[in-house]
């Protein structure tokens, strides 16, 4: 009990320390002692070679997060105080920024910015240009080696988020072109073409790092063209939530200033599904059970749930080809649609189950399951740079 009281006291000291910290930060920025900006190296805070303000905020956030689980049980006002912290952070940064307001960092250590003019969040990587160049080279080598090892058609589809696209030099389009130029020409690549901010906001959530259902549908159509398969005609969109969805970035920002609609495709699949080798009639029930106690509940995962290492859709039509998809959560909204055009579609997610700490023997898997085509469907930064350290090189053998 004494230990719990100590934790609460420490927590309160941190909170009130934060309230004092923000005015000091604002004074330093206003007087020119520090400069708050985005730079070509995607650094959050610049101060003639140091970033001590950013480090202080990171340290505060780290301390708060480390106490969060225990303190929440004894301190019911935690959420409101955390919201207060974020609102003060937002207000002070807004004073010293234009339309692009720095918010903080997410759980992947990416920088969060809020575009107050067009009202959406976007992320920027912590990686430097040198990091990106090295990672791109490593990924290109991975795919080229895979192409040499496998006597199968390899396809890559690249959904492209907003991060990096607003940097004048070395932006995402630059890296996509560099990626394609160095890939073996036998590997077929298709990229999501976004030519304006308006188009981006049509295809992606404003508060989450995923593409929305319109982006997923656009991706589905492009993937089917890439694979040279016919599309399911007349697919319609439906609403699945009666309240706003506050996605992963809104959760990191602890703010409800903007929200999204959670939508789905009005299509029912009758394909047999095996999850990790077993029949699973309840796989992806696509139902909403509202979490009244958590406004930032992750309804994307809850509704489109695909957190499994190995999923097989069985169309039971031997006249069709077999497809292997290696993917992340970007595939969850459309993998079953792609599967309609194949005999069996195997979906592998390296983050879960046997593959989480193991190795995926892709060559052996292809031989055993008579795979005809291999599709990589990851968020663009993961394919280009292994942005979130899925470790393709070591895990896919």
Describe the structure.
This protein is an alpha/beta fold and 397 residues long. Helix content is 40%, strand content 16%. It is built from 13 helices and 15 strands. An 8-stranded mixed β-sheet has the order 7-6-15-13-14-12-10-11. Helix 1 (2-30) runs parallel beside helix 3. The longest helix has 29 residues, at 2-30. It starts with a helix and ends with a helix. The relative contact order is 0.11. Residues 35-50 and 67-75 have low confidence and may be disordered.
- What is the strand arrangement across the widest sheet? 7-6-15-13-14-12-10-11
Coarse structural class: alpha/beta
Q: What is the string of SSEs from the N terminus onward? A: HEEHHEEEHEHEHHEHEEEHEEHEHEHH
**Strand content bin:** 15-25%
| Mean residue pLDDT | 83
Summarize the structure.
By secondary structure, the protein is of the alpha/beta class. The protein has helices at 2-30, 52-74, 78-95, 129-149, 172-182, 197-203, 213-226, 248-253, 299-304, 335-339, 362-369, 380-385, 392-395, and strands at residues 35-36, 45-46, 100-105, 111-115, 120-124, 153-158, 188-191, 237-239, 263-265, 272-275, 278-279, 310-314, 322-327, 344-348, 373-377.
What is the topological layout?
Elements: H1 2-30, E1 35-36, E2 45-46, H2 52-74, H3 78-95, E3 100-105, E4 111-115, E5 120-124, H4 129-149, E6 153-158, H5 172-182, E7 188-191, H6 197-203, H7 213-226, E8 237-239, H8 248-253, E9 263-265, E10 272-275, E11 278-279, H9 299-304, E12 310-314, E13 322-327, H10 335-339, E14 344-348, H11 362-369, E15 373-377, H12 380-385, H13 392-395
Parallel strand pairs: 6-7, 6-15, 13-14, 13-15
Antiparallel strand pairs: 1-2, 3-4, 4-5, 8-9, 10-11, 10-12, 12-14
Helix pairs in contact: 1-2, 1-3
